[in-house]
Amino acid sequence: MKKFVFFAVAILISCNMMAQSLDKMQWFNEPEKWEIKDNRLSMFVTPQSDYWRISHYGFTVDDAPFYYATYGGEFEVKVKISGDYKVRFDQSGLMLRTDHQNYIKAGIEFVDGKYNLSTVVTHKTSDWSVITLDKPVPFVWIKAVRRLDAVEVFYSFDDKNYVMMRNAWLQDNCPVMVGVMGACPDGNGFEAKFENFSVKHLPDQRRLKWLQDNAE
Q: Phi and psi at residue 212, in whole multiples of 5°?
């Protein structure tokens, strides 16, 4: 009976912490209009805003809305995203960022009238990879897993079956700003929604190996 009560309390605390997770985060480039309700963040993405550094286009911008918390170590983060995408390069998704020269953003990007699963990896200069979808989707789940010096990025349409869309390097053993972002380089802004955002701690693999090798 005591074990049952303990686990019931633990589950309740976990659920409450999940519901409060968005409230504990902070803005970088706060948009004019945003709201948190029922553990869902809605924002009107700032017009003429983006994250990009140098390559191909020859400019650097760092002015789009980013709502985040800072985490160390290894973790898994995921979120359900949707948006009223309107014009070229409208986008929303996850972002992992150590500083203005090093970040990964991944989600949906609207290009040439089509929905694309998009990932931008930036280390001093940015690159861009896309997976074009056959048809628009009402939402998509994006998940990123940080292990050692690598981040694996996945997408899903049901939060059950995940497909990897990118494996990218990110500096090991340094804090990471983890959260959601929206950008609107060409347009006048759009509504983006982020639901069920969560970050799960993953035990450090090197420490586990040391403990195993040095077991009493």
A: -70, -40
